[in-house]
Known about the structure:
The complex is a heterotrimer of chains A (295), B (537) and C (312). Chain A has helices at residues 2-36, 41-49, 52-56, 66-74, 86-117, 121-135, 142-152, 158-163, 170-182, 186-193, 198-227, 229-235, 242-250, 259-279, 281-291, and strands at residues 76-79, 82-85. Chain A has two domains: 2-64, no CATH class; 82-285, MetI-like fold (Orthogonal Bundle), CATH 1.10.3720.10. With 295 residues, chain A is mostly helical. Chain A has a two-stranded antiparallel ribbon. Chain A is globular. Chain B is α/β, with parallel strands linked by helices. In chain B, the strands form six sheets. A five-stranded mixed sheet of chain B has the order 2-1-3-14-4, sandwiched between helices. In chain B, strands 8-11-7-12 form a four-stranded mixed sheet. Chain C has helices at 15-47, 71-82, 84-116, 122-134, 137-156, 168-194, 198-206, 211-240, 245-249, 260-265, 278-306, and strands spanning 50-55, 58-63. Chain C has a two-stranded antiparallel sheet. The radius of gyration of chain C is 25 Å and the shape is globular. The interface between A and B is large, with 35 and 44 residues.
Amino acid sequence: MVKRKTLTSVFAIVLFVILILYTISLLFPIIWTFLVSLKSDDEFIFSLDADIEVFLGWPREGWAFSNYSAVFKYFKIETSSGDVYLPEMFFNGFSYAIVSALITIFTNCVVAYVVAKYKCVLTSAIYTIVIVFMILPVIGTLPAELEIMNNLGFYDNMIGIFLMKIMFGGTNFLIFYAMFKSVSWSYAEAAFVDGASHFRVFFQIMLPMAVPTFFALVLMQFITLWNDWQASLIYFPSHPTIAYGLYRYANSTGNEICVPYVMVACMMVALPIIVLFLAFRNKIVGTIAVGGLKG
Amino acid sequence: MKKLVRLLVLALLTFTITFGSFACGGGPKPWEGKTIIEFGCYQGGWGREWLDKAIEKFQEMYPEYYVKVDYEKSYEDLQSKIVTGKQDIFYAGINLYDFLEQDEFMDITDVMTTPLNEYLADSEIPITETKTIESKMTGTWQDMKDYCLSYDGHYYNVPFGGGLWTLNYNRDLFNRKKLFKDKDGDWCKADGDLTVGQDGVAGTYDDGLPVTYEDFTELLEQMSEEEGMTPFFWSYVDGYTKHFAHALGVAQDGKDVFNIFKTMNGSYDFDGDGIAETAIDNTNAWKLRNTSGRKFALQFCKDVIENGYYDSQSGKSNQSHLTSQKRYVQSEYNSKRGGNIKPIAFFIDGGHWHNEAEDVIAQTSERSGEDIQFGVMPFPWFEGCSAEKTTYYISSQNSTLCIRKNATEPEGCKKLLAFLNTDEMLVLSTKTSGIVRFMNYEMSETDLAAMPYYYQSTWEAAHNSDICYTICANEKIFRNFNYFNLGWEWDCTAPNGLPLNNPLENFKASATSSVTVQQYFNALYSAGPSEWSKNVK
Amino acid sequence: MKAIKEKTNTSFAGKKDRYIFIACMLAVPILFFCVFSLGVKLNSVLLSLKEYVVEDKKGSYEFLPFSSLGKNFGEAIGNLFNDQEVIWAFKNSVIFYLVGLLFTMPLSIFITYIIYKKIPGSKLFTIMAYLPQMLSTIIMTLMFKNLVEKVLPYLLGKPELSVFKDYTKLGVFIYYNSWVNLGANVILYLGAMTRIPEDLIEVGQLEGISLWKEFRLITLPLIFPTITVFIVAGVAGLFTNQNNLYNFYDAEAPKDISNLGYYMFVRVIGNHAQLRDYPYASAFGVLFTMVAAPITLLVKYLLEKFGPSAEF
Lengths: 295, 537, 312
């Protein structure tokens, strides 16, 4: 027994060290990226050959704050409707993420509510299908999806993209489902006695109760979509989001691109999320903890 | 706390909306009252200066038109615009047949076959050139022309132009270190008359430069041992190193062997004994991956790696094509500043690199106080190579000018297209960007003298040598152009099962560095049939 | 908690109203679900039986003639055994999966446990674990790529090493994926652990069991459903995960580092994508679905039957 206890603590110390190293390994690149974003291109290229301290260290030839204004001029990509600059990409990214998040989460909320509170053949079927689709993998449907989108004119069309977000299933559905299941129906019964309609019960009694969950899930969805650079690559290249713009810019063959600018662009993409994370830290931590509920 | 959060969200929203509307805002429109021609242009290595200048001139000649250019940095995106975009006239790299089969392009035979002064007779500033565009596509460019006409005998595109694959060298460094050979056979003194180079003519761009591989190895030794230089450097972009090695092989085999491949008709002596010739047709042309020139190319690459004749940053992912250009141009300057780098002599990149690096070259010249110049040199010949003349390979051969079939301004587009192919504009594009247009035209002495040395030497190289390019009227080739342009060159499997596709990188990577030249060569042969059946449709 | 049965509501509002409500709320979501979830899956099967035909200067997908209906499947199966590229892709997918299962997962469970046990700085560590999830993968990629390309050759004493082309590339990718996924796993398991009722732990502590025993007897069984989900989802991931290859290489990843998800993806998106490859890619998907679905069910069944269960 005693022996085991010491083993545990040695093991725990090793884990603790790994954890500290992991934390450093996460923080270090971010700090380094920030420093590079303040180096001049010349200095960066020079540092590739210089000693490792120079490469990893502070800017030595002055802080190139002008990089941050330069990205507004150079961080752009070309699309079929002309050059798109940082502000527009920012707008695209923001509107895509917020509208999509609201639509998806609202759809899940509505469907989960009906499924949780109105038992009938249809709702049972929906519940079963959602669970089955969560367990059973269907692989490689991207070409089929793109073909359907093309046929419907949804490809590269923001309205189509948003419509496609009317989709339910997955963790978001289950979270709402569990939440509505646990809400007492007596509130609704009381309302029905007063002659309230089903719609009224939903919008005026049940939905307000779901607001905290709703908000948390929208927030998470927003972050996911803001960061998802491949969505724009796959579905709407003409309306580049800022994350996709960053990918394109970093791989661009244009003349006004260099590593420090790319790093500034990274900072630009990360900034809103860092602000959101710091502002809603507790909410986010709570939501992901609940997200583990699935299964 | 809640208030703070609300404020933050509000600030974020305001920021977004302000910028969103800012992005959509506009000022006075220069095209008001004019007919707009929408131009979709690939903005790659050749940049946009040549087109900006040309358009300025065109708008003087035809004030009723305004040409709006959409510069696109991805060939793929531009290709999709040909189908879906609003542009009417394009400069892009395309597989012409794919679009012709979809009926996307306008028949421009009249533009090609009418004398330019007649076609552009209504211009404000008269054009005096009496040639037709078609008449300028002969000799070296005949294959391009045949390719254009191969669909149904009509023209749908004008082949644009490209860059030669050469050895790009730092001429300024060569000058200062005297890395030329004089008639006494001395390197690095070069006080007397220089040797005449591969073309055998004195007073040309290759004077004093290596002719044979023997000369070249001597030069490399001299550079790395005596002069403290690094001979080679290349970027992360695999395409360049692949083309480089291929061009090296083409330069050895010469035009005749290349033509056997292009026509897939003829015979080649693989043993080099002058007796056993193999007949080549379109089922076994893969065998031409094993010419003696290509074996030499492999040897060349192997030697570069084994002798450590390359910069330590070569091929790394942080050497994007632009970063690597800067690194090359600044190598000497940075070595003087105490960087852990030696001056680099040769840079492996397409002919467009100089145009891309123009600003860096000017800036570095200014800082270092040296007049930094670059030049091109022929690939050295190995002993027994079959090339009879200096030979260069061109890779960007499917770049083209074309017009959408139902263009909204067909007349304007055609006039612009004709104008872009007048001698004046051909000269302009060479002068501003160093592009060798796929047409016969002359450069005046003054024009030549006004260009950077790199463009001068490129021009000379292009006009005193054999030029090889893959595109031609052979359907097997242009139907599978993507494969022949890159995959055909080096794709095979090493004896240890790893993929080979790029001699320089493969010899450098530890897992495949033990592959010998002979093994690579054999692998090319044994992978030939399956590669062919998989890729050549 | 138990939900209250909601049979009673019919007595307050008419059945008709109830159905109108259900119909109004569900009509649109179900329509879109039918098109973009069910429809897409069905179309994937159909597409795998078609070919791309250009007729009258317009391309479209048409069914293969009945005699060669399985052409795409034949090609996919053939390549699975003969095409070196697919074989590599398969091998690498398995490697990525096994590393995730045998290394990243246990490590993250142990790490989570010590965070959960409130070691010094556990608040900071929790926030840190969120970091890779909060930043876009493209940012993580760019930071990592630029840093590693210089630092790793320095550490190995081989300045000329191209990290993403040379022998290091697979190892670096395995590291990168573990590095990024570790945080995600920690968050997931932390969620599961914090939901363990306090009184269970207290009972254990009163009995004076060691931490290790507590982990083995209480924590592990109670978070096992989460682990099950992770492993079960991983089976599909084996066939779909691109493991960030596209972030690093675009469509140009060296063939010997490709994996199945990437192999299918670059046939549909990017420089090498071609409309005529869609049916082939679909056939691959259908094929893998037929393999992955039974495996998934089997794994789920086995884990639920033989996995640990709480002894308290």
